[in-house]
Structures are given as structure tokens and as C-alpha cells.
Amino acid sequence: MSEIHFREMASKSWLNFLTFLCGSAIGFVLCSQLFSILLGEQGDTQPDILHNDPHARHADDNGQNHLEGQMNFNADSSQHKDENTDIAENLYQKVKILCWVMTGPQNLEKKAKHVKATWAQRCNKVLFMSSEEDKDFPAVGLKTREGRDQLYWKTIKAFQYVHDHYLEDADWFMKADDDTYVILENLRWLLSKYNPEEPIYFGRRFKPYVKQGYMSGGAGYVLSKEALKRFVDAFKTDKCTHSSSIEDLALGRCMEIINVEAGDSRDTIGKETFHPFVPEHHLIRGYLPRTFWYWNYNYYPPVEGPGCCSDLAVSFHYVDPTTMYELEYLVYHLRPYGYLYRYQPALPENIRKEVSRDYKKEDPKVK
Amino acid sequence: MLSESSSFLKGMMLGSIFCALITMLGHIRIGHGDRRHQHKHHHLQAPNKEDILKISQDERMELSKSFRVYCIILVKPKDVSLWAAVRETWTKHCDKAEFFSSENVKVFESINMETDDMWLMMRKAYKYAFDKYRDQYNWFFLARPTMFAIMENLKYFLLKKDPSQPFYLGHTIKSGDLEYVSVEGGIVLSIESMKRLNSLLGIPEKCPEQGGMIWKISEDKQLAVCLKYAGVFAENAEDSEGKDVFNTKSVGLFIKEAMSNHPNLVVEGCCSDMAVTFNGLTPNQMHVMMYGVYRLRAFGHIFHDALVFLPPNGSDND
């Protein structure tokens, strides 16, 4: 009888023990869950803050690359609350620039798209030139083939198209590649001293082969209205050849023949404004090896390091899509608050008279 | 039945207690924690435009000079090329910048911390800086050699912030109960925080040289624990739109991410206009940033700023 009683008691304490274990396990799990909820390590995610992008609105809006009236530089968010863009807006009206971008069907989405999303909107008018028409992008069809050897022919046809359709819509006509980044305000400042009725063109000047020099294709070049007229006329009257495999050199030769002056695009302290490479290649001493062709091509003494490039640079070349947006951020967004830039060039006389009040207000006399 | 349920309950209690013990043990010694801070994430914003307009024209220069920032950069011999770039670029805009290295390096002047351990280096550097410069600087900024920092934007951010208050700013991360400023974004301490920190550095119970019990804890977390004992709490620095101004990544990386995450709003969704730091840069990229920040700009865009900063003497890249 005591044996049964003993077994009963043993099984009971065994059962007790089991329930005890169960309880402790459940208690442990519940508690750890509770703790992990209360003290969970939050991952480090920088919030994706998107803001109204009025700049993009301009581009996507009517899909015509038409910028009617004034650029609303102040449309951006409160980051630009303290910004006064009167001078930039004034120059926009005074120095009208039509930009055409050399591209092709395979590059519309890969490259030209990013040009369109960034600097192209600041042209008074922008056209994307391709061998075939694309109504959606939109791109003009020049009815040529693609390829490096077609570049000059495309250039001639592009300028012809611009001349035939938009001659009176602008004062200056700029050619750029789909991997060129252009700062339009700085181009307008450069050109504001000149008369578009003069036969002159600007770019990064190279010295070989052409006596007055010629302008690098990739860094972009800009023709005055008179220069454009003469250029288009030169092909009608056979003054210039149609065929060449080197676009910029051929154009430079033609310019010399038709007496269009190769202008000096350097800033008021002699620093280059049009650049055939990205900033890094020019700013870092020794980046471009001494044996590189570039050192012998530059019309003016070439400089590497900080002296390479003007504060008011106009263009950079071989700019990939990421670098396009980076430059856009560095030029138009990030700035050092309150910093008095070393290089403070004067406004051209005519513009200064108009905006003199605002300009003087902004120039703190600090000793 | 009763005995079973009671043993079940006893089991549960024991299990919970055991679990709680383990959790507590695994965490760093947080101390008694401040239950007052219900708000999960501390945010600190840049001043408003309205505040700025109230500052008169005459006061601008004086005001600008009132911010004296001492820059601490912790380096190791392997960082020599970054060190060179940092020296030649943004640190020229600190009121004073000093390099604290793990050992003596012939090429550059530095203060030898004689240790390889990052937390020890940090402690010694803060102590050195406080002992020597407590009367000359009111803000102390600690950076990594892979960073690019814009001092002018830091001073703008600090406008209206009283350095005699305990400020501890940067890009914050929450780890359990602890909110700390990540060293990868740069750490800003006011003179008051420096004072409090230095008073605790000698107390091993509060500010030990070897914090974690089971595994090593990063130096920025250790700093946060130490500061928390002194009543100094981390705050995340943001601009007037809520964008971080201290960044742990480079501009290029932000752009790449933006291009895949929101390709229609790449630049606007990227980073603050008033960013103070970026990290993860190569020496070449620092030179490009120097040009891009202090020189390259679009003509005709003029700003009404409350502060005025002159370019430093004897410098040709800004």
C-alpha cells in the first residue's frame, strides 16, 4: 500500500517538476519577447525625405523643353529662402542661350535623361539632337547615322536645324555632349560682355592645327548669332568641307575660314572656364600624366591643382550620371553659410546699372 | 491540481526573473536611466529665418567671431594620405585643428596618444583638449580622417545655442535604451559638456576604460554612456526641413542611393543645403569637395546671411 502511495507521490512531484519547467520556459520566452519589444535596437536608417521639386516640374510638365517666360529660381523649398536670384534672372532675359545636346537613341535614357533633369532646364531653349526622332523624350531626328565619324555631319545638321527654326529665339547657340555639365549662369556672365552680332565663338581653346586655335568638342562651345549665320552659310557656298572624322577640329578650321574669332573664355584672373574633364582630373596634381596629349593641346598655359579652374566654371566633360547630380548639388544647393568668396568679379556695366541697388546691398564692406 | 498550477506559476516567475537578469547583464551599465525622457529621438534644428533677421547688420561680424571651434581628428599611421588631404582642406577653416595619433608619425605634426584603442584615444584627446583649451574654445568637434566638414555650416547650426548648456550633437543612433552620436558623422560637444565629461573621466565606475563586460563596445557608445551619467544627452542635428546635417556617407553615395530609390527627385531628396559633414571620402574627393563647396558656384545667386566668415590666410584652394 505504501508502495502505491509512494509511486503516486513520485509521479505527482514529477508532474509538478514538469509543469515547473514548462512554466519557467514560457516565462522566459514571454519575458524576452517583452524586452525585445521595449528595447529593440532600431536600425540606423536615414529617413528618405523627399521634397517638392519645382525644378523637375518645369522639365516634365509640357514635355516640350519649352521654358516660357521667366525661370522661377525661387520655387525651391525653404533651403533657398535667403536667396536672391535677381541678377541671375536678369541675365537670363538679357543673354538668351539656346543649348543643343549631341546624343543618340541608345543614350537618351542612359545619359541625356540626366542632362534633362539637371542643367538643361536653365537654357532659354534646349534641344536634344539624335540621328532619329523621338517624340516622347523629345529628341530631334537629324536623319544621319550614329558613330564617331558622323559627329561632324551631325553637328552641321544640328546647327542647320537650329538656324532654320530658332535663329531669332536666342542670342547665343551652345553645343554640348550628353556627358557635359554646363553652368548656364556662368556662361551668361562670360557672354554678357560681348555682342551676339559679332562673329565670335567660345569654348576650351586648343592650339594645334588651326592658327587661331579651335574649341574642344566635349567641353562644349558656344557660337554668337552672327557666327551661326556664317557657319550655316559656309556650307551652302562650299567655303567649308562637309566631311571630317574630327568634329571639333573641322568646325575650328571652318570658323577660321569664315572669319569667326576664337574667343578667350578665361575669367578675369586668367582661370579656364570650359573644362575637357571632370573637376577631379584638373584639381589633383599629377592626375593627368605628363605624357598625356592634353598638356600640348591647351592654347593657354595649362594649370593643374586649384589654379586649374575658375570659381565661375562653365563646363566639365566626361561627366557620368552620378557626377551630374553631384555637381548639381554642389553648385546649386550645398554652400558654406556666410562665406565671403575670394573671387568676387564685377557685373558687366549694363547689367550693373539695372540691378545696382540689390547688388550693393549684398556686398558687405568688411575690413 | 493546485500544486501543479502553483509550480507552473513558480516556474514562470523564475523564468522571467532569469530572463530579465540575462538582458540586464548583456546591456552596458546604463545606470538608473532617465525615465523623464519619453521622447524617443532627440531632434535639434537650425535657426529660423525670422530669428536671423532680428540680428542687426553691425552684430554679424562680432557674432561670427563668437563661435570658436576646436577640431580633434583621431588618426593612425595607416591614415597618412587621408591625413594629408584633411590638413590641406577643410581643417583650415577650424579656429584650431589638432591631430591626435596612435603613435608618432614623422611626416606630420600630431599629439601622440600612445595607444591603439579608439576609446582610449578619444578619452585622452578630450582630456588634453579640455585641459589646454578650456578658456579659448567654446565648441569641440571630433572627426574621422575620412570626413569632410564645413565649419561655416557648423557655426550657422550653433547660432542661438548657448555653449554653457550641455550640448552633444551629431547624427544619432538608438541602441536599445541608449541614444548616442555616431562618430561616423562627427561629434560636437559644447564647453559645458566637455566640463562634465572631464569630471567623470577619472571615475572608472561611471566612465570605465573598458566598458563592455562580454564584448568590446564602440567608442562612440562608450562616450554616450559616460555623458549620460553627467546628464548630457545626444541630440540629432537637423536643418529646418528635418534633413540630417551630419552625414555618415559621402555625397556620391547619397546620390547613387537616390538614383535607385527616387530617380525623379535625386538632388532635392539627397542632402541638406546646410550639411556640416560627409564621411567616407578619399583624399582626391576631399580636394574636389573643397573646390565644390568653397569656390564653384553659379553667378548671380546672392544670399542674405546672418554671419560673415572670411577665407583663411595663406590658402589657395578656397
Provide a quick synopsis of the model.
The complex is a heterodimer of chains A (367) and B (318). Chain A has 367 residues and is of the alpha/beta class. Chain A has helices at 2-39, 54-61, 86-94, 108-117, 151-166, 184-191, 225-236, 247-257, 279-283, 294-297, 321-332, 349-361; strands at 83-84, 97-102, 125-130, 140-141, 172-177, 181-182, 200-202, 205-206, 214-215, 221-224, 261-262, 315-316.
Structure, described:
The complex is a heterodimer of chains A (367) and B (318). Chain A contains twelve helices and twelve strands. Chain A has 367 residues and is α/β, with parallel strands linked by helices. Chain A has a domain at 84-334: Spore Coat Polysaccharide Biosynthesis Protein SpsA, Chain A, CATH 3.90.550.50. Chain B is an alpha/beta fold and 318 residues long. Chain B has a single domain (42-295), classed as Spore Coat Polysaccharide Biosynthesis Protein SpsA, Chain A, CATH 3.90.550. Chain B has helices spanning 2-26, 49-53, 59-65, 80-88, 118-133, 151-157, 191-200, 219-229, 251-261, 283-294; strands at 43-45, 69-75, 96-101, 111-112, 139-143, 148-149, 168-170, 172-175, 178-181, 187-190, 235-238, 277-278, 302-303. An eight-stranded mixed β-sheet of chain B has the order 1-11-7-10-5-2-3-4, with helices on both faces. The longest helix of chain B has 25 residues, at 2-26. The radius of gyration of chain B is 22 Å and the shape is globular. The chains are: A alpha/beta (367), B alpha/beta (318). Strand 1 of chain A pairs antiparallel with strand 13 of chain B, so a sheet runs across the interface.
